[in-house]
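Can't paste images in this forum, so I'm doing it all in text. The chain is below; anyone willing to post the predicted structure tokens underneath?
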Amino acid sequence: MCESDSLTDLSANADVRTAQSHRLVQKFYDIATAAYLDNWGVSFHLPPFTPGQTLQQACVAQEQQLAGNFRAGQRILDAGCGVGGPARTIAASVAGLHITGVTLIQEQVDLAAEYTRTARLAEQITFVTADFNRLPFPDHFFDGAYTFDALCHSPDKATTYRELHRVLAPGATFVGTDWMHADGLTASDYARWIEPVCRYSALPDLRSPAGTAELLHAAGFTVHHCHDLAAGHDLSPNWDLFDQSAASIVDYSDPRHRYLHQHCVTTADAGRAGAFTIGAWTATA
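Text version of the structure:
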């Protein structure tokens, strides 16, 4: 069985995706890292747009806004760092900040370190291969944490939030965004729109902003807000970009390309339907 067939099998249903989440995520990014670098750049998140912004401008603007939560000298955790685009923006925005990025994907750690050396930010940023649910850090180690569209890959989000709370100092800020489904979605709408997104994006499941706020609170965080970015912000250019990426895939004889095509199509369709969205929160430990 070829790699992409295994990826398709591992994505078949929520139970399999949850049980095999590490293997699934690793196989997904074996094919998706290069595709995102080609089509999205070094920041893999889905930002809100203002009129006339390019994707790169929108990503950097969101990263710079988030950087305002931190100050020089702090130790900050980047939970799901990808190839380090947000970490480099935030480190460049706050002199003296020390960021540790974690991801399951060794290729991403290697690329992130290379790009960061080139940007002359290696003294501020370190990258580690690690699991959200078993972070290799002592209690209360970090002064803050952030994440961009990454914790959705966790098979046990309650444990993930508890583990993040464990490594944060009391009163530390935890800010982030993530792939979510809209509040109030019916079970049939979830099956129609969100299950295909999960199947083709290596996601065990998705939570709503309200559901995420409940999990954060249960993990010990004080949640200041957790809301749908589509309320008051324009996410639609992301769906257009997914359409463009899908259209650029022309070799359907390759099952990896077919999988990535469905990744793009299902995400764009669910986003336009208002079923899929990006949620954002600010919380303190």
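The chain has a mean pLDDT of 95. Residues 91 and 97 are 6 Å apart (CA to CA).
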